[in-house]
Amino acid sequence: MTAAKCTTRGCGGGGQLRRGMCKSCYERWRVRQHAYGRFESQYVDASKARTHITQLREVGVSWRQMELLTGVNRKQLTTIYRGADISSHRTVTRILSTPIPAGKHVAAADYDRVPSIGATRRLQAMVANGWTQTYIAQRLGMTVHNLGVVVHGHQAAVSAQRDRDIRALFNELEVRKGPSTRARNLGVKHGWALPLEWDEEAIDDPAGEPIPSRRTWGDARKDAAAERRGRVRELTEQGLSAEVIASQLKVSTRQIVRDRSAA
User: Fold this and answer.
1) Number of domains into which the chain is organized
2) Which is it for the CA torsion 250, 173, 220, 224, positive or negative?
3) pLDDT value at 124 more than 90
């Protein structure tokens, strides 16, 4: 393999290059640039990159996955995270251009483990809506026994890929009633919420609670949801798109779609 050569005309020297120049050529170039007031360092303040890395970590992005997402090696990432004042402009740009995922289920690699709370609630909701565990297990490529472990909350975490598969099936079936009365009765027996009783923002939150639309007692959350759905209906009749309505009501676009289906 041929060693890289200095790109300065008439030089052709080798060794460790900086900006394509050998050490002596680079130093001469750097002094001139400073004298003319044109020198721009390749190194920049790393504080914004450190904040961005912290945000990625807070949503559950592992170092391995962050390395894949940013294209920056783990050593550089951890050096900035632990307090490096400066880093190369290229490294900082790569880090800052990496979007913050909505949650760990988005950022995690397929083999990573994520909390099962959302998966359990989605599975319970599908059963309560009339879809049998046998059908759900077949759709997910699971055994009924293994599915049951997650349905009944006996597993603290699931693989990120399993969580994504459950989310996809839930999104497909949430507004469709299943054919099984036995499954619906099982949901009633255990008090499992129906799909549309879950707000999208609450279903993955351990402290989140469903809005019990099939119950008869008063509830402030139920009233708030009913008011929102009424507002969604009004704005839809005015011809506004789901995106515009979501922006006005400060909820997700998907929540608007769900509210329209529930109307």
Assistant:
1) 3
2) positive
3) yes
pLDDT value at residue 215: 43
User: What does the H/E/C string look like for 159-210?
Assistant: EHHHHHHHHHHHHHHCCCCCCCHHHHHHHHHHCCCCHHHCCCCCCCCCCCCC
Q: Is residue 161 part of a domain?
A: yes
Residue that finishes a domain, picked among 201, 221, 243: 201
- The set of residues, in sequence order, having a beta carbon less than 8 Å from that of 51 and lying 6+ positions away, is none
Q: What is the structure's pLDDT at 46?
A: 87
Whole-model pTM: value is 0.52
> Is the domain of 237 the same as that of 251?
yes
Q: Mean pLDDT check: name the lowest of 24-33, 214-223, 234-243.
A: 214-223
* Number of alpha carbons in the 13 Å side-chain half-sphere of residue 110: 2
For β-strands 43-45 and 86-88, DSSP reports them as: antiparallel
Q: Which domain holds residue 123?
A: 110-201
Residue 3: the pLDDT is 65
Q: Is 60 left (phi over 0), alpha (psi -120 to 50) or beta?
A: left
CB proximity list for 197: less than 8 A, separation 6 or greater = 125, 210, 211, 212, 213, 214
